[in-house]
Amino acid sequence: MRKSIVIALGGNAIKQADEKGTAEEQRHNVATTCRQLVSMLKYGHRLVITHGNGPQAGNLLIQQEAGVAEVPAQPLDIVGAMTQGQVGYMFQQILQNMLWEERLSLPVVSIVNQVLVSEDDPDYQDPSKPVGPFYTKEEAATLKIERPDYIIKEVKPENVERRFRRVVPSPEPLRNIEYLAIRRMVDAGIVVVASGGGGVPVIFDKDKNLKGTAAVIDKDKAGEVLATVVGADVFMVLTDVDHAKINFGKPDEKNVGCVGYSEMRKLAAEGHFKAGSMGPKVEACLRFIEWGGQKAIITSLDKAIAALMDQSGTRIVPDVGCSV
Amino acid sequence: MRKSIVIALGGNAIKQADEKGTAEEQRHNVATTCRQLVSMLKYGHRLVITHGNGPQAGNLLIQQEAGVAEVPAQPLDIVGAMTQGQVGYMFQQILQNMLWEERLSLPVVSIVNQVLVSEDDPDYQDPSKPVGPFYTKEEAATLKIERPDYIIKEVKPENVERRFRRVVPSPEPLRNIEYLAIRRMVDAGIVVVASGGGGVPVIFDKDKNLKGTAAVIDKDKAGEVLATVVGADVFMVLTDVDHAKINFGKPDEKNVGCVGYSEMRKLAAEGHFKAGSMGPKVEACLRFIEWGGQKAIITSLDKAIAALMDQSGTRIVPDVGCSV
Q1: How many residue contacts between A and B have a Cβ separation below 8 Å?
Q2: Domain spans, chain B
Q3: Active-site residue among B10, B88, B129, B198?
Q4: How many CB atoms lie within 10 A of CB A252?
Q5: What pTM value is reported for the model?
């Protein structure tokens, strides 16, 4: 059965942890990812793709600072939009090539995508998401004077020299600003790449105008907002493991297969899924079901097709139960 | 009468020549531009917007080089895609805010957009388009060894120290790769920002796969390809003067108002329009009419509405003649 699927790709879909992030490395990883996406498109599924941008934004922020004597550095929201262009381009080109090879005439487009957050989000009180370069104690002290708007925190142990970093809030995504356009694009048969890096975070200012904010939104949570708003049948979170696990790292560790909403909510409350890692992925999936979604999947790239066929992966469904 | 209009914005729509290119400056200029665009949208016209990226790509290339000791520099095609994200974001956000203020419910989306060129284009034999930083003679010599793929040329007079620059081809645009998606988006009532910076230039490699190429496409010529392919009623080139002029700079200088295709082709052949400036704009407009377009306009931002009403600007029409 043909489904509309929103896929949130893990960081390893673009850059492996041990890589520097050259264009060639990234293209190679994106191609591996796209091969699986093309298989889904061959089944007739409609796809909306979203992705992280951590390493790309990190590199770009380093470059922005390195060039600051000559040209102005751009703020974090604009850097986010730039990485949407960068990553979107790679997916768009490689996916298009593979689709032509398969004689599938599907247009692929990446868009610039803003996601609304609120400055009342508790994370604005105590920002925790590190971005950009590492600084020495001295550099951090200078930066605090030069950029009074920056919050600098010690993020590595005392004995490391470069152990300071800028931190920004990671607020909850409230709304996908371009949702209407995305919905129309999906309806028009376009494969859309959207909400890259969790979306460019924007707030409403006092005049009710959208305005960029220095923050980073969790890409899986933003992916859920996207999935809900386009009315996706399936929300799929791809990561480096093929299942969410209970008792992770213990002798009685066990894969979560098909699971009802309430059961999974209970497992999450019991603390089985690590904050900053599997935790937000599970939370995003649970929200998708809460808002009427029929199936949320957490699995690895190579199990994605099997998971869609209920043969692998963690599949979270409404409480009426698992069909398999 | 409601029309579909493709607008190619001049560089001054985003960055004035005397500015450094801070985010604030650029937002200010984009807002001025968007006010005119909103007026057109209020008349019910459908808009596709395209823009240059020269200053943005220039700054980003400087930053890429400045950070090269720490993180890999991205190639020119990816830098182009990044500026599409950067500029597209500003237009998208500011235009969206103004539309909401006017209670116009039109979605605005910027896309990553590739434009096909050919390596057989004569400009690949003798590239002439300077990109990125200026180098001293010594730096240029080092760069020639480090980057054998770069072509470095002397672009300023002998007595200037930093007078060397990388040059790339500026090939003719052949096809807008995402044309089908753009057409569907326009049909779905979406205001689209596309083909930014003339599009990300791509070629077909030996396996018939799209591949980025280090080149820069003229944004007005790429705009014409876009206008033709979406079947625009009007192709409008906005620049810093309100008319193309004959005998430019001479005592008998005269604005070109409404003009038939053949007459304008003759004026162009007589050399009235300067290469690298008004020349490519006129050529782009002439091509639009050749491919069946009904009206091509060259004017300034503040005369755009008047030009649409045949009250100002250079208006190039098919030979059947001018209605005004």
Answers
A1: 183
A2: 1-117+176-232, 235-241+256-324
A3: B129
A4: 6
A5: 0.96
